[in-house]
């Protein structure tokens, strides 16, 4: 009788433990969804294929390719900012594809690059004989940097949009070309940490500051909490990012 009671007691404990875990996980998902940034109407429209760009949903994200023309290397791998849906970067991916590049946007678990650092592997495996650069926005840039530090032999360069390489992903002893782009009115980027992190980059890193640009306009998802109002339109900031990327990648050929 006592054995049966003990068994029932443990069954109840196990059931309540499982239920508690399910409730906590469900609550976490609900919370993350409530604070996640969704793509703007402009970004959603950029997800549609047309005569210039083919957009394809693939295993680990999205592929943007120039339609009816030869791809210009390097291919581009992009890691989204923390809690930002990948589609929010489709205007940037589309414009780079219109310039001739094949662009991959990674789809991160829970929209956090910390859980998808090696997503780049599957993109590189599609075209292993071609050249690649990797980069990302905010948190995405930091984890793109971690990938680059561990796989620099696979990459020609890395770019940071309002982001930096922390001590866990120093690139100053690699041959990876590096580009840093920031906005002068960014209210989210920790400038002190960003300055300190310069020590983790090569001496010949290229720095570009977009006058009037803020944090959120590196994507297309609206105002981000803690950010400053931008002094320039989203389209202008995007154009400056595209130009900086093109100028930098021209030197890699």
Strand content: 15-25%
Radius of gyration: 21 Å
Q: Give the CA-CA distance, first to last residue.
A: 79 Å
Order of helices and strands: HHEEEHEHEHEEHEH
Sheet having the most strands? 8 strands, mixed
The tally of strands reads 8
Q: Tally the helices: what do you get?
A: 7
CATH class of the largest domain: Alpha Beta
What is the CATH third-level topology name of the largest domain? Answer: Rossmann fold
Q: Whole-number average pLDDT?
A: 90
Percentage of residues in helical conformation: 25-40%
Strand line-up of the largest beta sheet: 1-2-4-3-5-6-7-8
Q: Which structural class best describes the helix and strand composition? A: alpha/beta
The rough form would be described as: globular
CATH 2nd-level architecture of the largest domain: 3-Layer(aba) Sandwich
Notes on the structure:
With 253 residues, this protein is of the alpha/beta class. The protein has two domains: 35 residues; 212 residues, Rossmann fold. It is 36% helix and 17% strand. It contains seven helices and eight strands; from the N terminus they run H-H-E-E-E-H-E-H-E-H-E-E-H-E-H. It has an eight-stranded mixed beta sheet with strand order 1-2-4-3-5-6-7-8, with helices on both faces. The longest helix has 34 residues. It is globular, with a radius of gyration of 21 Å. It starts with a helix and ends with a helix. 41% of the residues are buried. About 4% of the residues have low confidence.
Short overview:
Helices cover 36% and strands 17% of the residues. It is an alpha/beta fold and 253 residues long. Strands 1-2-4-3-5-6-7-8 form an eight-stranded mixed β-sheet, with helices on both faces.
């Amino acid at each position: 009788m006592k054995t049966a009671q003990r068994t029932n007691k443990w069954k109840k404990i196990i059931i309540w433990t499982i239920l508690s875990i399910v409730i906590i996980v469900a609550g976490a998902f609900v919370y993350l969804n409530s604070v996640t940034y969704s793509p703007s109407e402009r970004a959603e429209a950029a997800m549609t294929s047309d005569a210039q760009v083919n957009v394809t949903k693939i295993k680990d994200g999205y592929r943007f390719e120039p339609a009816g023309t030869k791809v210009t290397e390097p291919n581009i791998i992009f890691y989204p900012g923390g809690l930002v849906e990948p589609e929010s970067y489709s205007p940037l991916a589309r414009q780079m594809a219109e310039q001739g590049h094949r662009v991959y946007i990674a789809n991160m678990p829970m929209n956090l690059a910390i859980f998808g650092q090696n997503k780049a592997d599957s993109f590189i495996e599609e075209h292993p004989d071609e050249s690649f650069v990797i980069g990302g926005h905010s948190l995405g840039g930091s984890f793109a940097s971690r990938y680059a530090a561990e796989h620099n032999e696979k990459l020609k360069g890395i770019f940071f949009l309002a982001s930096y390489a922390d001590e866990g992903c120093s690139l100053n002893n690699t041959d990876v070309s590096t580009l840093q782009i920031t906005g002068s009115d960014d209210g989210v980027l920790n400038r002190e940490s960003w300055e300190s992190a310069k020590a983790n980059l090569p001496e010949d890193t290229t720095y570009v500051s977009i006058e009037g640009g803020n944090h959120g306009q590196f994507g297309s998802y609206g105002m981000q909490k803690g950010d400053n109002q931008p002094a320039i339109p989203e389209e202008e900031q995007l154009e400056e990012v595209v130009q900086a990327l093109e100028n930098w990648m021209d030197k890699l050929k």
